[in-house]
Amino acid sequence: MSTRHDESDSRRWKALLFISIAQLMVVLDGAVMNIALPSAQQALHFTDGSRQWVVTAYGLAFGGLLLVGGRVGDMVGRKRVFLIALAGFAVASAIGGLAVNAGMLLTARALQGVFAALLAPAALSLISLTFTQPRERAKAFGVFAAVSIAGGAVGLIAGGLLTQYLNWRFAMFILVPIAIIGILGAVSTVQDNGERHRSRLDVPGVLLASLGLVGLVYGFSAAESHGWSAPLTIGSFVVGVLLLTAFLVVQSRVPAPLLPLRVLTERNRAAAYLSVAFAVVSMFGMFLLLSYYFQQVKGWSPVMAGLAFMPMAVLQAFGATQVGARLAHRIAPRPIMVTGYLVSAAGLVLLALLDADSSFLEIAVAEAVVGIGIGAAFMPAMSISSHGVAPTDVGVASAMISSSQQVGGSIGVALLNTVATSSAASYLATRNGTAAPVHVRHQALMHGYSAAYWLATAFVVAAALVSAILVNARAPQHLPSPAPEDAAVDAVPVPAH
């Protein structure tokens, strides 16, 4: 019996490895493509407008279909959806690498988004269902959180290396073997122990949720390229909000909703969704601005710029696996999340205080503080995102945390980039405009980045406040480990009453 248990335990940790590889692929895709895109544009001769759509197509498909992807996993099986999504992502990536024009690349990116929307909630659901004991659950979510938040920095490094030393196409091709490894490993190790949602798919909910999320994500994309007051931006926001409002009304009335409102109303899950969205606004915007800083102000190559993110990537992984995970099975989630977010806010303040002549040591310290704080905070946030949820709803609950990240990322990129650009322009306008010398232009850029980092700090502080007010899950109770087949999904921290 012990041998059988040991084999099952070993298989679960191997399953986590392959699930994390799949998550890394999804996170890598966006970061790698951002670095490779200028080279792809030059090679395929497409316009700046088409370049924007290559980025937007992925975000729209991914963000718009996440809730549907989560519910499909609940209905037909998370492992099955996970494997199909990995295979589809590999095919879409190969199409992108072979693209001969902008249309083919755009189609590949949209397909990647569709399969990512199936993959992300399935991956998180499988971890929730596989690791049910507090200590193991903390370790598993620590690894998953580390991969999720450090993958962006790794992607920037990989994108720089592939683009500079090989070809932009390898930014797409590199995802194919990763997907194949994930499939081969997951077939024999991943198990779907959860119940399935037996009702029919809520088609009106699918249409309203997908189109509403597309409206919001596109609105933030339009804000970045057209401005916040542009009719296209305002119209997208209005349509998105109206459709999502209608979606919530429909969900309260249909017998088998796409998103049961009980998933949103439990305070710990609500805190996870909201705090992660606020924090990701800061993280995605910060990645973009730091990349500009390294290349435009410091004059570093894409490879050097990517490597400069290493202090943050390493400390994010350390924060999630060694700080967050070790504390999460001993104490309640709230102090970990609040402290982690506040530490991250302190790191953002350090970034706001940088200037054009700051040394790499100063930059690295700021990155490290941000990284360890956000890594520690995200681990319990990921864990309580499926806190106490019914096994039939675990997929859609997982989709909600992914939706929080996607919408938060869209807001962050558009909002912080707009603030940085407008603040820099205002600073430069009072100092001879574009005729100003180079050092003044660099000062203008730093002024803009600083303004954006202060705003990012406010969002992370808001994440800390949400966590302090809403999270009330107790410290996990350590029970004797049951045999794997007897483990209950609800062996997670319970809310205090």
UniProtKB/TrEMBL annotation:
Membrane topology of the entry: Multi-pass membrane protein
Segments forming domain Major facilitator superfamily (MFS) profile: 15-475
Keywords: Cell membrane, Membrane, Transmembrane, Transmembrane helix, Transport
Subcellular location: Cell membrane
The protein, known as: MFS transporter
Claim: Membrane is one of the keywords in the record: yes
Pfam entry (one): MFS_1
InterPro entries: EmrB-like (IPR004638), MFS (IPR011701), MFS_dom (IPR020846), MFS_trans_sf (IPR036259)
